[in-house]
Amino acid sequence: MSTKIALNLPVRDLADSTRFFTALGFPRHEQLANEQMQAVIVSDDIHVLLIDQSQFKAITKRDIPDTAVSSEMIVQLQVDNRQRVDELVDQAFAAGAKAANEPNDQGFLYGRSFRDPDGHHWDVFCINPEPGMPT
Predict the structure, then answer these.
(1) Hey, which of 12, 58, 93, 115 has its CA 20 to 30 A from 121?
(2) C-alpha 40: how far from its chain's center?
(3) First-to-last CA distance in the chain?
C-alpha cells in the first residue's frame, strides 16, 4: 500500500488561489471541489487542498498564522532536474508569486523558492547525486 499526502492550505481568495496553482500546470481534482474547497493535483502522490480560511479555521479550531509575519511550514517539492526547478518557479512568478529566498546552488543541490498569493512558502529543488550514487 502506498502512502500519499494531501496538504490542506488556508486561502483568502479561493478562486485566485485555484487560478494560481492551475497556472503552475497542476490540474484540478473535481471530485474534491465544493464552494469552500478546491483541490489541485501536484503528482500522483501529492494533492493540495485549498480551503477557504473560514472553513479551515472551523476545521482546525485554531487561529491561522499571518503569513506576512510568520511561517507555519515550508512546502518542498523535489523535482527531477534544474530545468524543472526553474520552469516551475518561473511559472509561479508569472502567476503572481513573490520571492521567498535567493536561489540555493550547492552543486549537488539546486533550489529556488517562492511565496504563493496567500504567503505560503514553497521550495522547489533537485538533487544531482555523485556519479554512481542512486537517484
Answers:
(1) 58
(2) 10
(3) 22
Alpha-helical runs (H) found in 29-122: 53-60, 82-94
Average per-residue pLDDT for the chain? 93
Top CATH class, 1-62: alpha beta
Write down the pLDDT at residue 61. 95
User: Could you give the 3-state DSSP secondary structure of residue 74?
Assistant: strand
Q: Of 5, 57, 30, 78, which Cα lies nearest the Cα of 22? A: 30
pLDDT at 48 over 70: yes
Q: Domain ranges for the chain, please list them.
A: 1-62, 73-135
pLDDT at position 134: 47
Q: How far apart are CA 134 and CA 94, in angstroms?
A: 34
